[in-house]
Amino acid sequence: MKINDVGRIGAIQAYQKTNKTKASNKAEAKRDELQISKTAQELLKVQKNDILNPAARSEKVERLKEQVDNGTYNVESKAIAEKMLKPKTGIFYE
């Protein structure tokens, strides 16, 4: 028996390997992507600041406790209402 075109088998196998490599490269090239909004980044900064600098927060709490105990704490309802409706963080539309 005579076998011809042995080279074609090698070429076909090389082609199949190349296609498998291309398919795996495409799968590797597609990666999940995450984009964090500016608002979320700002909130994260505030949160990190509170965590990394608890002394400033505790000083404020102590000062407010003293004002409440002394009866000198003044609630500015108008300022609170404005901040509730138009927060500086940009979460809500103005």
Automatic annotation (TrEMBL):
Lineage top rank: taxon: Bacteria
A Pfam family recorded for this sequence: FlgM
Record keywords: Bacterial flagellum biogenesis, Cell projection, Cilium, Flagellum, Repressor, Transcription, Transcription regulation
Single Gene Ontology BP annotation: bacterial-type flagellum organization
Domain Anti-sigma-28 factor FlgM C-terminal: 32-86
UniProt key word Oxidoreductase: no
Xref: SUPFAM superfamilies: Anti-sigma factor FlgM
InterPro entries in alphabetical order: Anti-sigma-28_factor_FlgM_sf, FlgM, FlgM_C
Keyword Cytoplasm: no
Family the UniProt entry places it in: Belongs to the FlgM family.
Name of the protein: Negative regulator of flagellin synthesis
Species: Desulfuribacillus alkaliarsenatis
Lineage start: Bacteria, Bacillati, Bacillota, Desulfuribacillia, Desulfuribacillales
